[in-house]
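Notes for week 9. Today we move from apo structures to complexes. The key idea is that a small molecule is not decoration. When we ask for a structure prediction with calcium ion present, the ligand SMILES becomes part of the input, just like the chain. The input block below holds both the sequence and the ligand string. Read it once before you look at the output, and try to guess where the molecule might sit.
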Amino acid sequence: MDVTIQCSGSTDPMSTGNATASDNCDISPLVTFSDVTAGGTCPQGVAITRTWVATDDCGNSSSCVQSILLDDTLPPSIACPGNVTIECTASTDPANTGTATGTDNCDPTPLFTSSDVTVAGSCPQERTITRTWVATDDCGNSSTCTQIIVVDDSLAPGITCPSNVTIECGTNTLPATTGSATATDNCDGAPVVDFSDATVGGNCPQEYTITRTWTATDACGNSTACIQIIVIDDSLAPAISCPANITIECTASSAPLNTGSATATDCDPTPAITSSDVTLGGACPQEYTITRTWLATDDCGNSSTCIQTIFVDDSTPPAVTCPPNVTILCTDSTLPALTGTATATDNCGGIPTVVSVRCHGCRWLCSGIYHQQNMDSDRCMRQYKHMHTSYYNR
Ligand SMILES: [Ca+2]
Ligand SMILES: [Ca+2]
Ligand SMILES: [Ca+2]
Ligand SMILES: [Ca+2]
């Protein structure tokens, strides 16, 4: 009887069956067989043509043919590598994630192949690969299994903070001045770098400390932080500018409202400005020099000074008023007690000294402070005396 058996099966007649024979005379004719083998449709497929011969003791024989077909209809066994989660930087190649294994009933080296279906994850660097493994034997029988490969970004970026820094008040505190953090990530080529500030006041309003927390975040939400300390200091004194030196009349006010005030600039928007005077006497009581030291002080106690010199001058002569002209008898006294006395006032106060000078044989003059009464010759002298100044003769 024709039979089909698996390639791995035995072709022994014990399995495939024996011919049977009977003879008219010989009760046990000899039964033998011979095989002719031909290739099948695949390396493991073999067609055997088995010719059975029955021979009696007298040499008479007859034969029949049995077809035995070895076939492979069983697929290889297959075992997938385990499901695995790998970092986005890792290779998804089977050399890293594993290869399916299996054996076949006939083919000692079944072929293993794989194909991937990829589904994006919740962020650009994450995805899920469904890898279908197929084992195929030489006769085209195949079996499959599935491996799940999760590609993950679980590592936060590396971050490097800018150095701690001390800057002068009034300087820009933004990163353009104080530096920015840099970051790299295992998967995200450009992690987002951001910062937030916490400020604590210092010893004075212009001094404070910023604790700047820098954060680098990758596209999958992993983040790292570092801290930069920025100290804002006021170590500079205000820039002070004095009013110009000035000469004023003794009647004028020497108060800053009249002589000018210093101005100052600082990171303190309103540095305190004060002044103190040292006065040095001049050539006469109404003339003197004021050395005015201006002081600008900021909120942090830094100060600077400049000096303004104020010259107080008396450049205006006294105003004098003569007694009226009089006509007297030649016998009368010509002394001022009878003829009257000039009076004088000065712009700078005090009592100007009024003197009279007598002239002989000349006009009576009354223009300054002056005259009358005898004197020498025909010289007419006008004496002009102003305070403690000198005489003027003519
Ligand atoms: Ca097989
Ligand atoms: Ca990352
Ligand atoms: Ca300052
Ligand atoms: Ca005067």
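The helical segments are 13-16, 94-97, 175-178, 256-259, 336-339.
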